[in-house]
């Protein structure tokens, strides 16, 4: 297992905020592999807390507490193990997708609909991008599992997400009622914004959804600069080819959304995020408290051993 610190990219956002297309777009970069949406990495964060508690519950008689083993060091070890699994899985994906040679054929390269995970065998793909929205609620642990991780906070206006989720069946998903869609937006955006407040601009870059549609090349250039990676024309080209609205109708429903309880609260939150320019020490402290408490609340009462069958 490599002892170097992994540098994954996590996209945090409400569903239907461009997370999938950004995952694949960044996955065209020579050094970044696209991940299918995960749940197991967030589950590992929960399991890490529970197993750490098991290893620390009896003071000097428990293995970890016997030496006051730090939880953050424990998480970082788990992050390296996860990184090793990710790269092992990627090697298997290359063979599944491209055959034993692990490289695309001429026909595959010529097919604009083929979703590539590596364009050339010399591309290192030392990093990976995970666009699973579930990760939005586990950023406190993910930031410590992967101290060099960076986060892209995709922000789409609430009416856009509500409209897209309401018509999600058109894109192959499950349609969501408006009130439930609003709750989904609120929960994810609050968690993502507090992650930005806690970790700061060096680790979190906000991706305004409108820029995905209006200036994909400039946006991708800014993202590559944030990630300290060379610009990638294939990434921007992928955004241009694949971005679509999935039949959303946000302009058609905007006038009816005021009837939803808490929609004005969502609009206020969206405005607060887009208008904030500077983060204070108190903001960072509040954000840190929020994401830690969110992680701990989702991880509580989940015994790994001795629980109900």
Describe the structure.
This protein has helices spanning 19-26, 40-54, 71-98, 106-110, 139-145, 158-166, 178-199, 209-214, 216-226, 233-242, 250-253, 263-275, 281-299; strands spanning 9-12, 32-34, 127-130, 150-155, 204-208. The protein is built from 13 helices and five strands. The chain has a five-stranded parallel sheet with strand order 2-3-1-4-5, sandwiched between helices.
* Helix-and-strand structural type: alpha/beta
| Average of per-residue pLDDT values | 90
Number of helices, counting only DSSP H or I runs of 4 residues or more? 13
Summarize the helix and strand pattern as letters.
Answer: EHEHHHEHEHHEHHHHHH
Spatial shape: globular
Major pleated sheet: 5 strands, parallel
Number-wise, the strands total 5
- State the strand order across the main sheet: 2-3-1-4-5
Radius of gyration: 20 Å
Question: How would you summarize what this structure contains?
Answer:
This protein is of the alpha/beta class and 309 residues long. It has 13 helices and five strands.
């Amino acid at each position: 297992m490599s002892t170097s610190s992994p540098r994954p990219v996590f996209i945090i956002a409400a569903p239907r905020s461009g997370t999938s297309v950004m995952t694949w777009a960044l996955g065209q970069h020579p050094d970044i592999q696209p991940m299918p949406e995960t749940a197991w990495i967030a589950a590992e964060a929960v399991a890490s807390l529970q197993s750490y508690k098991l290893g620390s519950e009896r003071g000097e008689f428990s293995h970890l507490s016997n030496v006051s083993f730090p939880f953050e060091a424990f998480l970082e070890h788990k992050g390296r193990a996860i990184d090793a699994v990710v790269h092992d899985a990627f090697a298997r994906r290359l063979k599944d997708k491209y055959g034993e040679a692990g490289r695309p054929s001429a026909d595959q390269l010529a097919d604009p609909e083929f979703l590539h995970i590596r364009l050339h065998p010399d591309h290192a793909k030392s990093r990976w991008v995970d666009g699973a929205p579930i990760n939005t609620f586990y950023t406190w642990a993910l930031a410590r599992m992967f101290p060099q991780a960076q986060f892209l906070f995709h922000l789409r206006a609430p009416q856009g997400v509500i409209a897209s989720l309401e018509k999600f069946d058109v894109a192959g998903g499950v349609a969501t009622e408006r009130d439930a869609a609003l709750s989904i937006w609120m929960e994810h955006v609050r968690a993502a914004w507090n992650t930005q407040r806690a970790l700061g601009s060096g680790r979190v870059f906000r991706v305004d959804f409108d820029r995905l549609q209006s200036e994909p090349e400039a946006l991708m250039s800014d993202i590559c600069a944030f990630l300290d990676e060379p610009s990638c024309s294939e990434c921007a080209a992928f955004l241009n080819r694949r971005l679509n609205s999935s039949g959303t109708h946000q302009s058609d429903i905007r006038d009816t959304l005021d009837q939803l309880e808490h929609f004005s609260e969502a609009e206020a939150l969206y405005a607060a995020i887009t208008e904030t320019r500077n983060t204070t020490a108190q903001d960072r402290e509040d954000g840190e408290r929020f994401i830690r408490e969110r992680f701990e609340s989702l991880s509580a009462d989940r015994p790994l051993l001795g629980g109900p069958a």
